[in-house]
Design brief:
single chain; alpha/beta; 5-stranded parallel sheet; 17 strands; globular; FAD; FAD/NAD-bd_sf; oxidoreductase; monooxygenase; NAD(P)/FAD-dependent oxidoreductase
Length: 407
């Protein structure tokens, strides 16, 4: 049988799904509200675990696997905890993994979509049609009809707002500033292993390297007709702010500099030389997935349904897992092995279970990154979920609405 899928949101989860569906011969169109793919720069390092990488490889054409490998980086070694003068005060056990740059990975996942990618499309509603299909409505007056609508549109998901208005993000009360600084030998010394934390009272600065395995991969991709942005190594840094800090995005870099006066000159230089256009202040919010009945022609993926705290390092990986699971289930449908409603029901059952676990873990892991006085023991294995009990427990016992018509 044939199938048409509408994906709302051109983040890495939605794009990974789109690539996987293309490999299965399923027609897929991606609708993004931003006026263009580069309207917002999204170039921060993210950790990719074995499951996330396997999902990417399963959804991407095999001929692109070498490009994927070249755009990633290696993470290994101990995780150091330092004081502001860079004296070692603690060390967590060594770890190993991979990293990807969200901006570069997103461009790889865009490859080949062509006219199937539609920008400037803000979803305003959808209608379930009598024949079982769904019609998406956009602010510009256009519509799209498909067998399935997938909301992959992030923590502020318009699809989730229509599907289940009661399921809203929970604010953990934690604010942070995130930025990136071009890598140099001087700054590389600040992160000799997997990562570095610099702690001082109510301030905690976390550093991590994004060192690409093959910087020449952008040129290699061009030979395949794939346009990747320039690839350059950098240090990604994150500062957790004190309680109730307003987190002014306009003055994010200055906020960090004002709180590290007297710190080691290398640390101050790292922040001073950051990319100002890619330094911002954000709130840590989470979304707990809730099982809904009955399944219908609209579902959710990634942060739209289970947004995690970045402290868990599992948000992108969970979204990629969603994409691969949904790809496999929909492939079963087009190959005649199961019905669409059964495939969606199975996807949501599994996704809700592991998605809820990912959110709980990420909130508990946030504890170890909080400044002194807001956390328990620093070692990861001793972290507890004392911050924001509401963020951990706000799962509810209700069944979200699945209206026949949402506009």
């Amino acid at each position: 049988m044939t199938m048409d899928v509408i994906v709302v949101g051109a983040g890495i989860g939605g794009l990974c799904l789109a690539q996987g569906l293309r490999q299965a011969g399923i027609t897929v169109d991606v609708y993004e509200k931003d006026p263009g793919i580069t309207a917002r720069f999204q170039g921060y390092r993210i950790g990719i675990d074995a499951g996330g990488e396997a999902a990417l490889r399963a959804c991407l054409p095999e001929r692109w696997h070498d490009l994927l490998d070249g755009t990633m980086g290696d993470l290994s070694g101990a995780r150091s905890v330092l004081d502001p003068r860079l004296n070692l005060i603690d060390e967590w056990p060594p770890a190993q993994g991979s990293a990807a740059d969200r901006h570069v990975l997103r461009h790889l996942l865009l490859a080949g979509l062509g006219e199937r990618l539609h920008t400037g499309k803000r979803l305003t509603g959808y209608r379930n049609r009598p024949d079982g299909t769904v019609e998406a409505l956009f602010a510009d007056g256009t519509t799209a009809t498909g067998d399935l609508l997938v909301g992959a549109d992030g923590i502020n998901s318009a699809v989730r707002g229509l599907l289940d208005p009661e399921l809203t993000p929970t604010d953990t009360g934690v604010r942070f500033v995130i930025g990136r600084t071009p890598l140099s030998d001087r700054f590389a010394r600040l992160v000799p292993g997997f990562g570095t934390q610099i702690v001082d009272g109510e301030v905690n600065l976390a550093l991590g390297l994004m060192r690409f395995r093959r910087p020449e991969t952008a040129s290699e991709a061009a030979a395949h007709g794939i346009a990747l942005p320039p690839i350059a190594d950098y240090v990604r840094w994150v500062m957790l702010l004190p309680p109730d800090h307003p987190g002014d995005a306009a003055g994010a870099q200055e906020t960090v500099l004002s709180r590290i006066e007297g710190w080691h000159a290398d640390v101050r230089a790292l922040i001073a030389r950051a990319d100002k256009d890619n330094t911002t202040s954000l709130a840590i919010r989470v979304v707990h997935p809730v099982r809904r009945r009955p399944p219908g022609p609209v579902t959710l993926l990634g942060d739209a349904v289970h947004a995690t705290s970045p402290s868990g390092g599992n948000g992108a990986n969970t979204a990629l897992r969603d994409a691969d699971l949904l790809r496999r289930n929909l492939t079963d449908v087009v190959q005649g092995r199961r019905e669409l409603r059964d495939a969606i029901d199975d996807y949501e059952t599994q996704m809700t279970e592991y998605g809820a676990a990912a959110v709980r873990y990420s909130v508990a892991a946030l504890e170890k990154f909080l400044p002194a006085g807001r956390r328990g023991p620093t070692r990861p294995e001793a972290a507890t979920a004392s911050i924001s009990a509401a963020a951990v427990n706000n799962t509810g016992n209700r069944r979200p609405r699945c209206d026949e018509t949402a506009t």
